Amino acid sequence: MTQKSVVTFYTIEEIDNYLKIGRSVERYCNKNDIVGTFFSTLQGINTTLSGNEESLKGLIVLLQEKYKLNISSQTWSKSKNNPFKRLKVKCRKNLLPLEGNFDPVNSRGKYLNYSDWNKLISDPDTLIIDVRNDYETEIGSFKNSIIPNIKNLTEFPNFVEKMLSTKKNKKIAMFCTGGIRCEIASSFMLSEGFTNVSQLEGGVLRYLNDVQDEKNLWQGECFVFDDRVTVDKNLKKGDYLQCFGCRRPLTKEDLESEFYKKGVSCHKCFHTSSDMDKERFAQRQLQIELAEKKGYTHMGANAKQSKR
Question: 237, 80 in Cβ contact below 8 A?
Answer without folding.
Answer: yes
